[in-house]
Amino acid sequence: MKKYLIALMMVLAPMTASAAGGAAVPLDSIDIDLTDKASLQRGMAAFVNRCMGCHSAQFQRFERAATDLEIPADLVEEYLIFDNDKKIGEQMTIAMAKEDATNWFGNPPPDLTLESRLRGPDWVYTYLRSFYKDEARPWGVNNVVFPDVGMPNVLEDLQGTVINHCTPEELHAGHETKVDPLTGERIGGCFSVEPETGSMTEEEFDQYVYDLVNFMAYMGEPSAMVSGKIGTYVLIFLAILFVFAYALKKEYWKDVH
Does domain 30-234 have CATH number 1.10.760.10? Predict the structure, then answer.
Protein backbone atom coordinates (compact mmCIF):
# COMPACT_ATOMS: atom_id res chain seq x y z
CA MET A 1 0.00 0.00 0.00
CA LYS A 2 2.87 2.31 0.85
CA LYS A 3 4.38 1.80 -2.60
CA TYR A 4 1.09 2.77 -4.25
CA LEU A 5 0.89 5.99 -2.21
CA ILE A 6 4.46 6.93 -3.15
CA ALA A 7 3.74 6.28 -6.83
CA LEU A 8 0.60 8.41 -6.66
CA MET A 9 2.51 11.30 -5.08
CA MET A 10 5.14 11.11 -7.83
CA VAL A 11 2.44 11.29 -10.49
CA LEU A 12 0.71 14.25 -8.89
CA ALA A 13 3.87 16.22 -8.14
CA PRO A 14 4.38 17.55 -11.71
CA MET A 15 0.71 18.51 -11.91
CA THR A 16 1.00 20.47 -8.68
CA ALA A 17 4.14 22.20 -9.86
CA SER A 18 2.50 23.10 -13.16
CA ALA A 19 -0.55 24.52 -11.42
CA ALA A 20 1.66 26.58 -9.13
CA GLY A 21 3.61 27.95 -12.08
CA GLY A 22 0.44 28.91 -13.96
CA ALA A 23 -0.88 30.81 -10.96
CA ALA A 24 2.27 33.02 -10.70
CA VAL A 25 0.54 35.99 -12.35
CA PRO A 26 -2.75 37.07 -10.70
CA LEU A 27 -5.71 36.46 -12.99
CA ASP A 28 -8.88 38.48 -13.39
CA SER A 29 -11.94 36.44 -12.45
CA ILE A 30 -15.03 36.12 -14.63
CA ASP A 31 -18.28 34.24 -14.17
CA ILE A 32 -19.13 32.11 -17.17
CA ASP A 33 -22.86 32.13 -17.97
CA LEU A 34 -23.95 29.51 -20.48
CA THR A 35 -27.57 30.63 -20.13
CA ASP A 36 -26.78 34.04 -21.66
CA LYS A 37 -27.55 33.21 -25.27
CA ALA A 38 -26.97 36.79 -26.45
CA SER A 39 -23.44 36.76 -25.00
CA LEU A 40 -22.71 33.37 -26.54
CA GLN A 41 -23.98 34.51 -29.94
CA ARG A 42 -21.78 37.62 -29.83
CA GLY A 43 -18.90 35.41 -28.66
CA MET A 44 -19.30 33.05 -31.61
CA ALA A 45 -19.22 35.97 -34.02
CA ALA A 46 -16.09 37.31 -32.30
CA PHE A 47 -14.42 33.89 -32.42
CA VAL A 48 -15.13 33.38 -36.12
CA ASN A 49 -14.05 36.89 -37.09
CA ARG A 50 -11.05 37.32 -34.79
CA CYS A 51 -9.68 33.86 -34.03
CA MET A 52 -10.43 31.61 -36.97
CA GLY A 53 -8.01 33.35 -39.27
CA CYS A 54 -5.29 31.26 -37.61
CA HIS A 55 -6.94 28.98 -35.05
CA SER A 56 -9.33 26.14 -35.71
CA ALA A 57 -11.97 24.56 -33.49
CA GLN A 58 -11.95 21.15 -35.08
CA PHE A 59 -13.97 19.43 -32.33
CA GLN A 60 -16.90 21.83 -32.74
CA ARG A 61 -19.39 21.93 -35.60
CA PHE A 62 -21.10 25.06 -36.91
CA GLU A 63 -24.47 23.33 -36.82
CA ARG A 64 -24.15 22.19 -33.19
CA ALA A 65 -23.22 25.71 -32.10
CA ALA A 66 -26.05 27.23 -34.13
CA THR A 67 -28.57 24.85 -32.54
CA ASP A 68 -27.32 25.29 -28.98
CA LEU A 69 -27.08 29.08 -29.25
CA GLU A 70 -30.39 29.41 -31.13
CA ILE A 71 -28.87 31.05 -34.20
CA PRO A 72 -30.80 30.43 -37.45
CA ALA A 73 -28.84 28.15 -39.76
CA ASP A 74 -29.21 30.49 -42.72
CA LEU A 75 -27.60 33.35 -40.77
CA VAL A 76 -24.67 31.14 -39.80
CA GLU A 77 -24.15 30.12 -43.42
CA GLU A 78 -24.37 33.73 -44.61
CA TYR A 79 -22.33 35.55 -41.96
CA LEU A 80 -20.17 33.04 -40.09
CA ILE A 81 -19.01 30.58 -42.75
CA PHE A 82 -16.62 32.31 -45.14
CA ASP A 83 -15.62 29.26 -47.18
CA ASN A 84 -18.24 28.74 -49.88
CA ASP A 85 -17.35 25.04 -50.08
CA LYS A 86 -17.91 24.43 -46.36
CA LYS A 87 -21.29 23.18 -45.16
CA ILE A 88 -22.94 24.06 -41.86
CA GLY A 89 -22.67 20.47 -40.66
CA GLU A 90 -18.88 20.50 -40.95
CA GLN A 91 -16.31 21.21 -38.26
CA MET A 92 -15.03 24.70 -37.51
CA THR A 93 -11.70 24.26 -39.25
CA ILE A 94 -9.55 26.71 -41.21
CA ALA A 95 -7.85 26.58 -44.58
CA MET A 96 -4.36 27.38 -43.30
CA ALA A 97 -2.01 24.44 -43.69
CA LYS A 98 0.11 23.48 -40.69
CA GLU A 99 3.26 23.70 -42.82
CA ASP A 100 2.50 27.32 -43.75
CA ALA A 101 1.61 28.18 -40.15
CA THR A 102 4.92 26.72 -38.97
CA ASN A 103 6.85 28.82 -41.49
CA TRP A 104 5.01 32.01 -40.54
CA PHE A 105 4.71 31.65 -36.77
CA GLY A 106 7.41 29.16 -35.83
CA ASN A 107 4.73 26.75 -34.57
CA PRO A 108 1.21 26.13 -35.86
CA PRO A 109 -1.39 28.03 -33.81
CA PRO A 110 -3.14 25.59 -31.44
CA ASP A 111 -6.68 24.38 -31.86
CA LEU A 112 -8.89 26.34 -29.46
CA THR A 113 -11.81 23.98 -28.95
CA LEU A 114 -10.62 22.86 -25.52
CA GLU A 115 -8.40 25.83 -24.63
CA SER A 116 -10.79 27.15 -22.00
CA ARG A 117 -10.95 23.74 -20.30
CA LEU A 118 -7.17 23.37 -20.47
CA ARG A 119 -6.18 26.74 -19.02
CA GLY A 120 -9.43 27.96 -17.46
CA PRO A 121 -11.68 30.88 -18.48
CA ASP A 122 -9.93 33.28 -16.08
CA TRP A 123 -6.58 32.62 -17.79
CA VAL A 124 -7.96 33.12 -21.30
CA TYR A 125 -9.84 36.28 -20.27
CA THR A 126 -6.77 37.82 -18.62
CA TYR A 127 -4.48 36.75 -21.47
CA LEU A 128 -6.57 38.40 -24.17
CA ARG A 129 -6.63 41.68 -22.22
CA SER A 130 -2.92 41.68 -21.29
CA PHE A 131 -1.10 42.43 -24.53
CA TYR A 132 1.16 45.48 -24.53
CA LYS A 133 3.53 47.18 -26.97
CA ASP A 134 7.03 45.69 -27.08
CA GLU A 135 9.17 46.61 -30.08
CA ALA A 136 11.71 43.94 -29.17
CA ARG A 137 9.25 41.17 -30.04
CA PRO A 138 8.71 39.93 -33.64
CA TRP A 139 5.05 41.01 -33.66
CA GLY A 140 5.68 44.20 -31.71
CA VAL A 141 3.71 43.05 -28.67
CA ASN A 142 4.22 41.03 -25.50
CA ASN A 143 1.88 39.58 -22.91
CA VAL A 144 1.79 39.62 -19.12
CA VAL A 145 0.25 36.18 -18.70
CA PHE A 146 2.27 34.53 -21.49
CA PRO A 147 5.65 36.32 -21.73
CA ASP A 148 7.29 36.35 -25.17
CA VAL A 149 4.22 34.84 -26.79
CA GLY A 150 4.52 34.31 -30.54
CA MET A 151 1.11 35.75 -31.37
CA PRO A 152 0.09 39.20 -32.60
CA ASN A 153 -2.51 41.20 -30.71
CA VAL A 154 -5.48 40.58 -33.00
CA LEU A 155 -7.72 42.76 -30.81
CA GLU A 156 -5.45 45.83 -30.83
CA ASP A 157 -7.71 47.82 -33.14
CA LEU A 158 -10.51 47.38 -30.60
CA GLN A 159 -8.56 47.83 -27.37
CA GLY A 160 -6.00 50.31 -28.64
CA THR A 161 -2.21 50.30 -28.40
CA VAL A 162 -1.31 49.50 -24.80
CA ILE A 163 1.84 51.05 -23.34
CA ASN A 164 3.63 49.44 -20.41
CA HIS A 165 5.15 51.68 -17.71
CA CYS A 166 6.35 48.98 -15.32
CA THR A 167 9.38 46.75 -15.01
CA PRO A 168 9.10 43.02 -15.80
CA GLU A 169 9.27 42.29 -12.08
CA GLU A 170 6.32 44.57 -11.36
CA LEU A 171 4.31 43.03 -14.18
CA HIS A 172 5.05 39.54 -12.92
CA ALA A 173 3.91 40.57 -9.43
CA GLY A 174 0.51 41.55 -10.81
CA HIS A 175 0.78 45.34 -10.76
CA GLU A 176 -0.74 45.72 -14.20
CA THR A 177 -3.88 47.20 -12.58
CA LYS A 178 -4.71 48.94 -9.33
CA VAL A 179 -8.15 49.27 -7.80
CA ASP A 180 -9.44 52.19 -5.73
CA PRO A 181 -10.62 50.59 -2.44
CA LEU A 182 -13.43 53.15 -2.10
CA THR A 183 -14.94 53.20 -5.59
CA GLY A 184 -13.75 49.84 -6.91
CA GLU A 185 -12.56 51.54 -10.11
CA ARG A 186 -9.20 50.89 -11.72
CA ILE A 187 -6.60 53.58 -11.20
CA GLY A 188 -2.98 53.93 -12.23
CA GLY A 189 -1.24 50.65 -12.86
CA CYS A 190 1.33 49.66 -15.45
CA PHE A 191 -0.72 50.16 -18.59
CA SER A 192 -2.14 53.07 -20.49
CA VAL A 193 -3.83 53.13 -23.89
CA GLU A 194 -2.62 55.54 -26.54
CA PRO A 195 -5.45 58.00 -27.31
CA GLU A 196 -7.62 57.34 -30.34
CA THR A 197 -5.99 54.00 -31.17
CA GLY A 198 -8.88 51.76 -30.13
CA SER A 199 -12.45 51.72 -31.41
CA MET A 200 -13.93 50.57 -28.05
CA THR A 201 -14.02 51.95 -24.56
CA GLU A 202 -12.46 49.87 -21.78
CA GLU A 203 -15.89 48.64 -20.67
CA GLU A 204 -16.93 47.74 -24.21
CA PHE A 205 -13.67 45.88 -24.80
CA ASP A 206 -13.96 43.93 -21.55
CA GLN A 207 -17.50 42.90 -22.54
CA TYR A 208 -16.28 41.88 -26.00
CA VAL A 209 -13.57 39.66 -24.52
CA TYR A 210 -16.01 38.25 -21.96
CA ASP A 211 -18.41 37.21 -24.74
CA LEU A 212 -15.53 35.59 -26.63
CA VAL A 213 -14.33 33.64 -23.58
CA ASN A 214 -17.91 32.72 -22.71
CA PHE A 215 -18.25 31.09 -26.14
CA MET A 216 -14.90 29.34 -25.77
CA ALA A 217 -16.07 27.95 -22.42
CA TYR A 218 -19.19 26.64 -24.17
CA MET A 219 -17.05 25.02 -26.89
CA GLY A 220 -14.97 23.26 -24.26
CA GLU A 221 -18.03 21.42 -22.98
CA PRO A 222 -21.20 21.95 -25.05
CA SER A 223 -23.02 19.26 -23.08
CA ALA A 224 -22.86 21.48 -19.99
CA MET A 225 -25.83 23.46 -21.34
CA VAL A 226 -27.94 20.28 -21.41
CA SER A 227 -26.54 18.62 -18.30
CA GLY A 228 -27.35 21.68 -16.23
CA LYS A 229 -31.01 21.44 -17.19
CA ILE A 230 -31.05 17.68 -16.65
CA GLY A 231 -29.49 18.16 -13.23
CA THR A 232 -32.31 20.49 -12.23
CA TYR A 233 -34.95 17.98 -13.34
CA VAL A 234 -33.14 15.19 -11.48
CA LEU A 235 -33.11 17.19 -8.24
CA ILE A 236 -36.83 17.95 -8.60
CA PHE A 237 -37.53 14.26 -9.24
CA LEU A 238 -35.48 13.22 -6.20
CA ALA A 239 -37.29 15.76 -4.03
CA ILE A 240 -40.68 14.34 -5.07
CA LEU A 241 -39.42 10.76 -4.73
CA PHE A 242 -38.19 11.53 -1.20
CA VAL A 243 -41.72 12.39 -0.12
CA PHE A 244 -43.06 9.03 -1.28
CA ALA A 245 -40.00 7.13 0.02
CA TYR A 246 -40.38 8.76 3.44
CA ALA A 247 -44.09 7.95 3.53
CA LEU A 248 -43.31 4.34 2.57
CA LYS A 249 -40.68 4.14 5.29
CA LYS A 250 -43.18 5.42 7.87
CA GLU A 251 -45.67 2.82 6.72
CA TYR A 252 -43.14 -0.06 7.02
CA TRP A 253 -41.91 1.01 10.45
CA LYS A 254 -45.15 2.08 12.07
CA ASP A 255 -45.64 -1.30 13.76
CA VAL A 256 -42.03 -1.39 14.98
CA HIS A 257 -42.27 1.98 16.70
Answer: yes
